[in-house]
Design goal:
The complex is a heterodimer of chains A (254) and B (493). With 254 residues, chain A is α/β, with parallel strands linked by helices. Helices cover 37% and strands 28% of the residues of chain A. In chain B, a hairpin with a 2-residue loop joins strand 3 and strand 4. Classes of the chains: A alpha/beta (254), B alpha/beta (493). Chains A and B meet through strand 4, helix 2, strand 7, helix 3 and strand 8 of A and helix 1, helix 9 and helix 10 of B. Chain B: It comes from PS1 clade bacterium. Chain B: InterPro entries: Fe-S_cluster_assembly_SufBD, SUF_FeS_clus_asmbl_SufB, SUF_FeS_clus_asmbl_SufBD_core, SUF_FeS_clus_asmbl_SufBD_sf, SufBD_N.
């Protein structure tokens, strides 16, 4: 089967600062990949480059999403094509309720795909169902987007958006950080519920803990802007014991 | 620059390119035979306008007196706006569709071309059966210098509500007009008010009798159509004891390369226990992206809470006009009376806005609230100018002011000029102000969720304006939300 996401020899950075140095990664539909790596290794940068954030420039290499190059697509086009990023630091938008945001987002994506907008009643039903499944009460939907949310609530909210939008590829950037164990389980349940044969996931994390709940098919170690080692779930456990020291050195010396 | 970035920039360029031509959808012109007097301002012109309207002598004298005073006054220059000198002798002060020559007609007789103009603007001038769930709105439609029709008059009359054009009110209710005209905004109040008092041509008049809750929203829709013509309308709303009315005002004009002057006066009078809610969605043509053309909107709006427990609330959404000079104000004369001002002022491209309010606390235990949201984009300039005055006798006065500015891009400017004067020690005055920018991260976040940059800006700005939008009547709120998005088109890139 052809890859859902295929990254070859990606060199990218912010303005003139190179951050990703020849990164290659391939995810097939149905697979969950985890990327682990020390702080500053470029994990968030990778997620921004994939999602098309302004100021993040690709100087070399290729990113194919379902066979189409992402390089020429605006961020919203990538979202419409089914790429979703759960942010490490979700943004606040004062005055815009969670509900309004979800609805605007869902309908923008449906319009972008040439589908009809969802009617108000169906939307409400869906939003309630998905938020309850994530252990969020209905009040959360009426609150202003991420304003005054705790770290855990923000992360949960990202997963709610993912559940509503049902992306083809979900990139989760340190969704586990700042969560207590119960919240971690709920979020992991939410993610696991979305695992599907036609959906791929890229789970970025600093700690092995999350991978106890979301079982990855492949684990990659990232250091200094590239993948330095790949393996099965056992690699995560190994890292937990030995730390990243070895890889950081290797990458620097390479 | 990455290719992704290049493609976004290309999009922005395309959006900006279509911006001048398409985004102002009310920019069309109605080709219609008009009765238009030669340009210029003189006693003769004023006599002509007054005669045209078959006005009584007292009103002509009132106009002439205003004109005499105007001639001695200077155009104000304290506002944070900059525009070339207006040649008042090169303006036309009266233009009316020929079909309206013999005065107001019944709605069935109004020129179909005028009806079509209003239907294109989305303003129903037929009293058609309204859809379930939608409230009825009575409309007075003012086209250049005349009112072309007022809907639901008979139905309103059943409750004793008078709603008609100003010219008709002068004929049919002279005692009310005489009593209240100029009683809130004296004819020499300021330069533009004096000019209006001399040459005003039409406008709306409304009287709500004691104890009546007006059964539907009342509205006036102003349209400037003719080139080189000023619009000087006058609105007078009187809410008698214990009555209630919600009044809406909308405005648009064709896209023209030359600037046009709109100098209106709105007077509100609320008697004991009466309440007036006055909402405006001002969408005059703002000029093109280089600042060519557009309306000069120099308007005096003031409400008088004349008796105890009267309440007046102004809500405005200002998106249009090349230059706006406007300060809807409240005189809190009655004890326990209250005034509110909710404002959204958006400026894009080369627009200039200087707007705000004045709350004058005269009575005891009077309260006022000011919520102002200024949004500047492009190379525009947006100033909030507010004044809260507490008279020595106004014991227990309270004011709360919140003044927020949002900047889009780095070529625009926002100014806040609050002025507070409390001459009574028991006054409690609070003032909060913030300035913020739409961050790239917020935009990216929205785009990652499928919104394009303009939808993202519209969403964020609507959130920023929420407190004010919530105060608009439902029908207006939806329109206003869309308008917020449209008027900021081309502001990101
Ligand atoms: N906007 C930026 N400008 C310059 N350098 C940046 C920027 N963002 C990140 N970096 C640098 O890029 C490297 C990778 O950062 P990041 O992708 O956030 O790492 P991680 O998510 O793995 O912790 C770090 O050295 C960081 O300082
Ligand atoms: Mg990170």
């Amino acid at each position: 089967m052809s890859a859902l996401l295929d990254i070859q020899n990606l060199h990218a950075g912010v303005e003139d600062t190179p951050i990703l140095n020849g990164l290659s990664l391939s995810i097939r539909p149905g697979e969950v990949h985890a990327i682990m790596g020390p702080n500053g290794s470029g994990k968030s940068t990778l997620s921004y480059v994939l999602a098309g954030k302004d100021g993040y420039n690709v100087s070399q290499g290729e990113m194919l999403f379902n066979g189409t190059s992402l390089a020429y697509m605006a961020p919203e086009e990538r979202a419409i094509a089914g790429l979703f990023l759960a942010f490490q630091y979700p943004l606040e938008i004062p005055g815009v309720t969670n509900m309004t945001f979800l609805k605007t987002s869902l309908n923008a994506i449906r319009r972008g795909r040439g589908e009809d907008e969802m009617d108000a009643a169906s939307f409400l039903r869906l939003a309630r169902e998905k938020s309850r499944a994530l252990g969020m009460n209905d009040d959360m939907l009426k609150r202003q987007l991420n304003v005054g949310f705790s770290g855990g609530e923000k992360k949960r909210n990202e997963i709610l958006q993912m559940a509503m939008l049902e992306p083809k590829l979900a990139i989760l950037d340190e969704t586990d950080s700042g969560l207590d164990i119960d919240a971690l389980k709920t979020v992991a349940d939410g993610v696991n519920a979305l695992r599907a044969p036609d959906r791929g996931m890229l789970v970025i994390t600093h700690y092995q803990r999350l991978l106890d709940f979301i079982k990855p098919d492949v684990v990659h170690v990232m250091a200094d802007g590239k993948i330095v080692k790949s393996g099965g779930p056992e690699l995560a456990l190994e890292l937990e014991k030995s730390g990243y020291g070895e890889y950081v050195g290797e990458a620097v010396n390479a | 620059m990455s290719e992704a970035k290049a493609s976004i920039d290309k999009q922005t360029v395309d959006q900006v390119a279509k911006f001048g031509g398409e985004h102002y959808k009310y920019g069309f012109t109605t080709e219609i035979d008009v009765d238009k007097i030669p340009n210029g301002l003189s006693e003769d012109i004023i006599r002509f306008i007054s005669a045209k309207k078959e006005e009584p002598q007292w009103l002509l004298d009132w106009r002439l007196d205003a004109y005499e005073r105007w001639k001695t006054m200077d155009e104000p220059d304290w506002a944070h706006v900059d525009y070339p000198k207006i040649d008042y002798q090169d303006l036309c002060y009266y233009a009316a569709p020929k079909s309206m020559e013999d005065g107001p007609k019944s709605l069935d007789e109004v020129d179909p071309q005028l009806l079509e103009t209003y239907s294109k603007l989305g303003i129903p001038l037929q009293e058609q059966e309204v859809l379930a769930g939608v409230r009825k709105v009575a409309v007075d439609a003012v086209f250049d210098s005349v009112s072309v029709g007022t809907t639901f008059r008979e139905e309103l009359a059943k409750d004793g509500v008078i709603f008609c054009s100003f010219s008709e009110a002068v004929k049919e209710h002279p005692e009310l007009v005489k009593k209240y005209l100029g009683s809130v905004v004296p004819k020499s109040d300021n330069y533009f008010a004096a000019l209006n008092s001399a040459v005003f041509s039409d406008g709306s008049f409304c009287y709500i009798p004691p104890g009546v809750k007006c059964p539907m929203e009342l509205s006036t829709y102003f349209r400037i159509n003719e080139a080189n013509t000023g619009q000087f309308e006058r609105t007078l709303v009187i809410a008698d004891k214990g009555s209630y009315v919600s009044y809406l005002e909308g405005c648009t004009a064709p896209m023209r390369d030359e600037n046009q002057l709109h100098a209106a006066v709105v007077e509100l009078v609320a008697l004991e226990d009466a309440e007036i809610k006055y909402s405006t969605v001002q969408n005059w043509y703002p000029g093109d992206e280089n600042g060519k053309g557009g309306i000069y909107n120099f308007v005096t709006k003031r409400g008088d809470c004349r008796e105890d427990r009267a309440r007046i609330s102004w809500t405005q959404v200002e998106t249009g006009s090349a230059v706006t000079w406007k300060y809807p104000s409240c005189i809190l004369r009655g004890d326990n009376s209250s005034g509110e001002f909710y404002s959204i002022a958006i400026s894009n491209n080369m627009q200039q806005v200087d707007s705000g309010t004045k709350m004058l606390h005269l009575g005891k235990n009077t309260s006022s609230k000011i919520i102002s949201k200024g949004i500047s984009a492009g190379r525009s300039s947006n100033a909030y100018r507010g004044q809260v005055n507490v008279h020595p006798k106004a014991a227990g006065a309270r004011n709360f002011t919140q003044c927020d500015s949002l900047l889009i891009g780095d070529k625009c400017a926002a100014h806040t000029v609050p002025y507070i004067e409390a001459k009574n020690l028991s006054a409690v005055l609070e003032h909060e102000a913030t300035t913020s920018k739409i961050s790239d991260d917020q935009l990216f976040f929205c785009q990652q969720r499928g919104l394009d940059a303009e939808e993202a800006v519209a969403l964020i700005v609507n959130g920023f304006c929420r407190d004010v939008l919530q105060n608009l009547p439902m029908e207006f709120a939806v329109e206003a939300q869309k308008l917020v998005g449209i008027s900021l088109e081309g502001s990101v890139g």
